């Protein structure tokens, strides 16, 4: 969720380097930020050895006024414990101001620990759970060196956490994790640490991905330890992909529209290069006793779309549930079960946690993720990388279509007809190119202008278009803050139709499939009650007040038809003077429960 970046080495502009690193991590989502660095040659009694600068809001074009230093840490915070204030922003200091800490996760037993520390004389300046940690380290430093003090402090907390601390006296960084990701970059007599490979790929390609229950100390050298035992471990370095290096917006004003525009290329790549991987996954499903798709948010709607495709095309039953609910369904799992986890970042805690529990039952796990080396990638028995390229906007677009395209080809692979699925993905790629043409975009902009005056939008679909209705509603909510609700058309009369009044906009997905007549009946029901209908369909109809064409490409329509909704959400955000890349309260990688 939050972004972490740290440095120790010989460079002097540490604060500027950390600020740039935090900007690379902005897409993860945050509401405040801060940086801490050591003050050189200022260790006189009563003076701070570490200085901190904190801000509420986005980084933007900010500059920092911190002095030159060779060690520091920074953080972009998404608030959990305590409001969005400068005091609650990270980094946090101990009483002596020699220890500074940044943290991703939740310290579940912080209340008890805080009471004990207050009794021992420690003073707290924030409402956060994080602030207890530098004081814990300070307490353990009374009888220990920095490494064991940090380890003892970490072992005393509960929950899934990633914590990075600097010690101004030893000029070292210590870090450990039990949940959220941490990656160490190794340079020439210097080290970088980040919550995301994107943060360090500009500086080095040699990296160490910390595993759960591992701890690292960075100073003149890198030392890796077991958190539980303190035993020294041998680092297993990896090489970062060059594709992780910074990608700009190019000709586009925002990443979201850039990523929407990249979707034809993403789909064509899957059609051209994924046949072998998909056929292998199909064989694994055939050998499993119970297959489950899990994902969170947009990824869950891709899972749901996959269940419809498997039913219709492959005649195979696949179970699905939101990843956050899967723990409550785990009694079904055995050592013959197959879990297919869909996750853009591969770090979403709602996906990671049920996978950990499934592994304990011996279930086999396959990851469909966009990030090599992520937690989901590493804990899986095999992986398919989505190959969508870096997705910087918080609201997922091209990764969603990548997942749907792989699931579409997978459904046909199960039937022994992968070439048909491959052709449909190619056709979807071409149709999305047409939807992105100037004439089509002008029509979608006009509809966005109409919707901009409304407070509520309802979106309906049936069959495989039901997940499209839900994903379309999510996109509109995420980036424009309009209330949008996605519904199965047949459920309207079971309550939601009470909310339809004259002038209420209703978007209707009406592809050329077995749902057409039924969903058109639902459209007529809301039209009779005064709704304004926006049809997303292969053909116009007299009852539509507005019409967006998506040509009939059979099951490939499932991928193409969501693009108009993505564009509507984007243009609504622009009309409202909002930043579609960084919606309020949201994070790209949700690493806390």
Write a structural description.
This protein is globular. It has three domains: 3-244, Aminohydrolase, N-terminal nucleophile (Ntn) domain (Glutamine Phosphoribosylpyrophosphate, subunit 1, domain 1, 4-Layer Sandwich); 252-435, Glucose-6-phosphate isomerase like protein, domain 1 (Rossmann fold), CATH 3.40.50.10490; 437-579, Glucose-6-phosphate isomerase like protein, domain 1 (Rossmann fold), CATH 3.40.50.10490. It is built from 19 helices and 25 strands. The longest helix is centred in the last third of the chain and has 18 residues, at 418-435. The chain has an eight-stranded antiparallel beta sheet with strand order 3-2-4-1-10-9-11-15. The model has no long low-confidence stretch (mean pLDDT 93). 35% of the residues lie in helices and 22% in strands. It has 593 residues and is of the alpha/beta class. It starts with a strand and ends in an 18-residue tail after the last helix. Helix 7 packs antiparallel against helix 14 (418-435), helix 9 (298-314) runs parallel beside helix 13 and helix 13 packs antiparallel against helix 14.
């Amino acid at each position: 969720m939050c972004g972490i970046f740290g440095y120790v080495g010989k460079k002097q502009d540490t604060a500027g380097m950390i600020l740039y690193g935090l900007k690379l991590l902005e897409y993860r989502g945050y509401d405040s930020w801060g940086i801490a660095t050591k003050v050189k040659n200022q260790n006189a009694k009563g003076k701070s050895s570490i200085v901190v600068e904190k801000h509420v809001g986005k980084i933007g074009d900010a500059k920092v006024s911190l002095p030159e230093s060779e060690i520091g840490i920074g953080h972009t915070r998404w608030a959990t414990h305590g409001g969005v204030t400068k005091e609650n922003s990270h980094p946090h200091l101990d009483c002596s101001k020699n220890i500074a800490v940044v943290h991703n996760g939740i310290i579940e037993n912080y209340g008890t620990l805080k009471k004990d520390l207050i009794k021992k004389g420690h003073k707290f300046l924030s409402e956060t759970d994080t602030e207890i940690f530098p004081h814990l380290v300070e307490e353990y430093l009374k009888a220990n060196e920095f490494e064991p003090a940090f380890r003892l402090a970490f072992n005393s907390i509960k929950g899934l956490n990633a914590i990075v601390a600097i010690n101004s006296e030893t000029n070292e960084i210590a870090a450990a994790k039990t949940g959220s990701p941490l990656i160490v970059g190794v340079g020439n007599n210097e080290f970088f640490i980040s919550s995301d490979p994107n943060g360090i790929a500009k500086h080095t390609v040699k990296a160490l991905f910390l595993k759960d229950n591992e701890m690292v100390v960075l100073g003149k050298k890198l030392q890796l330890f077991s958190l539980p035992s303190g035993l020294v471990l041998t680092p297993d370095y990896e090489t970062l992909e060059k594709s992780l290096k910074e990608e700009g917006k190019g000709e586009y004003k925002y990443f979201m529209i850039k990523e929407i525009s990249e979707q034809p290329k993403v789909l064509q790549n899957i059609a051209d290069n994924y046949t072998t991987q998909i056929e292998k996954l199909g064989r694994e499903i055939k050998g499993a006793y119970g297959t489950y798709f899990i994902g969170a948010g947009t990824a869950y709607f891709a899972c749901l779309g996959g269940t419809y495709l498997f039913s219709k095309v492959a005649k195979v039953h696949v179970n699905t549930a939101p990843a956050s609910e899967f723990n409550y369904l785990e009694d079904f799992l055995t050592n013959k079960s197959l879990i297919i986890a869909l996750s853009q970042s591969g770090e979403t805690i709602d996906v990671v946690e049920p996978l950990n529990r499934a592994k304990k039952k011996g279930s086999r796990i396959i990851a469909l993720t966009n990030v090599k080396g992520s937690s989901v990638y590493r804990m899986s028995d095999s992986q398919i990388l989505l190959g969508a390229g870096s997705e910087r906007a918080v609201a997922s677009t091209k990764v969603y279509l990548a997942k749907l395209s792989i699931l579409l080809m997978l459904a046909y692979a199960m039937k022994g007809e992968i070439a048909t699925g491959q052709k449909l993905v190619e056709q979807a790629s071409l149709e999305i190119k047409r939807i992105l043409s100037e004439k089509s975009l002008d029509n979608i902009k006009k509809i966005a202008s109409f919707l901009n005056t409304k407070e509520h939008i309802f979106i309906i679909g049936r069959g495989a278009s039901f997940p499209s209705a839900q994903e379309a509603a999510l996109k509109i909510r995420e980036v424009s803050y309009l209330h949008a609700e996605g519904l199965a058309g047949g459920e309207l009369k079971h309550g939601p139709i009470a909310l339809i009044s004259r002038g209420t906009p209703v978007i209707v997905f009406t592809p050329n499939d077995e749902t057409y007549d039924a969903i058109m009946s639902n459209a007529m029901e809301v039209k009779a009650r005064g709704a304004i209908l926006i049809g997303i369909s292969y053909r116009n109809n007299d009852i539509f007040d507005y019409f967006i064409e998506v040509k009939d490409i059979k099951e490939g329509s499932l991928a193409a038809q969501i693009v108009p909704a993505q564009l509507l959400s984007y243009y609504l955000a622009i009309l409202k003077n909002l930043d579609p890349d960084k919606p309020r309260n949201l994070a790209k990688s949700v690493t806390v429960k």
